[in-house]
Design a protein that fits this description.
Structural class: alpha/beta
Shape: globular
Largest sheet: 8 strands, mixed
Number of helices: 12
Distance between the termini: 49 Å
Length: about 425
């Protein structure tokens, strides 16, 4: 549903990106002092990254935790909705006083990824000529994005993160951190992610990008000046509907919606099934807080993800990781299946068996099952009571204390 006078809802914006002049909310900014050399060639000038932080950095800077968001996430990992933040923190149940990432103990940092749309440089932000980057925005990879985050860490004076944690796309960047900067990662938590994007994951992302590019409101990527109702919100909506089906489990959709008609509607007479109404809601909600150009740019960056590229292959790359590592899968995840996390756990020296989150919610389980994620954090970070500066070394996982047994297939037995 796009919003019309007939429905009584306002038309959807051409872009849901944060713009200069909007309330900053709790954002802070890191401004890179020099152009970013890109892995695909060329460079990106005037790079800026929005981030949020909670807690206090210890005098010895040993208590910093890096939290990396998934595709449509942003820096607002904790806190309420409000001016500048259209949605509550996406991991609010994990970050805060007394929570798994206890901000009375840990200094937690969450950047908005380069290419994103909530304060970081991306297609909706201004290029040096003052106009939105739009179609001129360059191709990015996960390595470009982590290089900028390393600059943020330098500016904050953080030489080594006590923990780097990410799920899905955030897990891809967490992996890049651990392989590109092994001495800067004290511990690693990988949730519902993979060593390289699979053919199926690339295919789903390609379908979504094509939906956006096929929208007449796309205008080749140069639509940010258009009024509400004229941007590529239809294509972005189709992309979001498609993604939402892959993010959730068939059993959950069956139990929640079945074949029930939406209240007051009849599917045979221009009405919708309840599951269609759910997808419409998700599409409109995203259009109000996200940018179609960022969706395409970040999707392409995810498709480029291959931890072994130019590093001698996956096994050679993962062997570089020195941090104690916990890898977790979601048992109902049909987008990032367990086999991908099994490969990571088998090939990362500081990991043992993959942990499994039990969830009816599919891939989104890593965001929703916070009560199961919290103990995984505790495996890697010491409890708050023992968090003095001399105590802030991440605990070793079992695999760092005893060598794991590897089956002939290369998977933990």
């Amino acid at each position: 549903m796009t919003g019309t006078a007939a429905t009584g809802t306002p038309p959807l914006p051409a872009s849901g990106a944060w713009r200069e002049g909007d309330p900053p909310g709790h954002r802070r900014w890191y401004q890179r002092s020099e152009p970013l050399a890109l892995e695909a060639g060329g460079s990106l000038p005037n790079v800026r990254v929005a981030y949020e932080a909670w807690g206090a950095l210890a005098p010895d800077r040993s208590n910093a935790v890096l939290v990396l968001h998934a595709l449509t996430g942003d820096s607002h990992a904790a806190g309420t909705a409000g001016p500048g933040h259209p949605s509550p923190g996406w991991w609010d149940a994990l970050i805060g006083p007394g929570r798994a990432l206890d901000t009375d103990c840990w200094f937690v940092v969450a950047p908005n990824v380069l290419g994103g749309c909530q304060g970081s440089t991306g297609p909706a932000s201004a290029a040096p000529d003052g106009r939105p980057w739009g179609s001129r925005f360059p191709f990015l990879t996960q390595r470009d994005q982590t290089a900028v985050e390393a600059g943020l860490a330098d500016t904050l004076g953080i030489e080594r993160w006590a923990l780097v944690v990410g799920g899905s796309m955030g897990g891809m960047r967490a992996l890049e951190w651990a392989v590109s900067y092994p001495d800067r990662v004290g511990a690693l938590l990988l949730l519902a992610t993979t060593a390289q994007a699979s053919a199926e994951q690339i295919a789903w992302t390609s379908v979504q990008a094509q939906a956006i590019r096929s929208d007449p409101g796309w205008h080749g990527g140069d639509y940010h000046h258009l009024p509400p109702g004229r941007g590529p919100h239809l294509g972005l909506g189709i992309a979001r509907r498609t993604a939402q089906v892959t993010y959730r489990a068939e059993s959950e959709l069956r139990e929640r919606f079945g074949r029930t008609a939406q209240a007051g509607e009849h599917p045979w007479h221009d009405g919708r099934y309840a599951v269609e109404s759910y997808l419409d809601h998700q599409a409109a909600k995203l259009a109000r807080r996200f940018d179609a150009g960022s969706y395409v740019v970040l999707g392409e960056a995810m498709n480029s993800h291959d931890i072994g590229r130019d590093r001698g292959g996956t096994a050679s790359a993962l062997a570089r990781i020195t941090a104690p590592t916990v890898v977790a899968a979601v048992d109902s995840d049909r987008l990032y299946p367990l086999t991908q996390q099994q490969e990571l756990a088998a090939l990362i020296p500081g990991a043992d068996r993959p942990r499994v989150l039990h969830s009816a919610c599919g891939h989104d389980g890593f965001l929703l099952e916070t009560a199961q994620v919290a103990p995984l954090v505790a495996e890697l970070l010491p409890p708050a009571a023992a968090s003095g500066p001399s105590q802030r070394t991440p605990r070793l996982t079992a695999s760092a204390e005893r060598r794991r047994s590897i089956s002939p297939m290369g998977l933990p037995e």
